[in-house]
């Protein structure tokens, strides 16, 4: 998943980013309403975790801006305002869910997953291509019935390739989506990660799935 956290409290924002990263997800942080609104309406996020009490512009304004441009964007309000009237206000403005601080990260994660299931934004729980399979709920990978152990970064890379089978993905696009970074043409981070992934997913098998298009990028596909 790619998550936007709009939260001005540094410890809470860092806690959330760490929690999502440990789940293998990418999380961006905005610390005020203006920056958060800009990222929310211009970025491509699976879910937005939005605090209400923000500097510059509050979460109510951000939520209204999101809803005016992206009606189906999953948004979870995260705030210390626990009055029923505040929760009702958030839901009327278009929030999909509401969690009161303090909270357990496990509950937040469960709510995020439920939002994505309901909105059909989340990718399929199980991705399959040829004899390769990923269970995104359990973070497990199999090929030809063999269990393959992947590091979190390798898992994110493979899952991204499997969401676009047959489509050539440039190094820039992979870097942005898997590492959440701007690609430096002199960097070989994507190539190194692909090599490591191939050692586990392709090298032990006669049929290769990850292919290089020189000067362009990579594609997941079967070839004779």
Automatic annotation (TrEMBL):
Keywords: DNA-binding, Phosphoprotein, Transcription, Transcription regulation, Two-component regulatory system. SMART domains: REC (SM00448), Trans_reg_C (SM00862). It holds the Pfam family Trans_reg_C. The keyword Magnesium does not apply. One of its GO terms (biological process) is regulation of DNA-templated transcription. InterPro entries: CheY-like_superfamily (IPR011006), CusR-like (IPR006291), OmpR/PhoB-type_DNA-bd (IPR001867), Sig_transdc_resp-reg_receiver (IPR001789), WalR-like (IPR039420), WH-like_DNA-bd_sf (IPR036388). Residues 2-116 form the Response regulatory domain. This is Heavy metal response regulator transcription factor. It comes from Acidithiobacillus ferridurans.
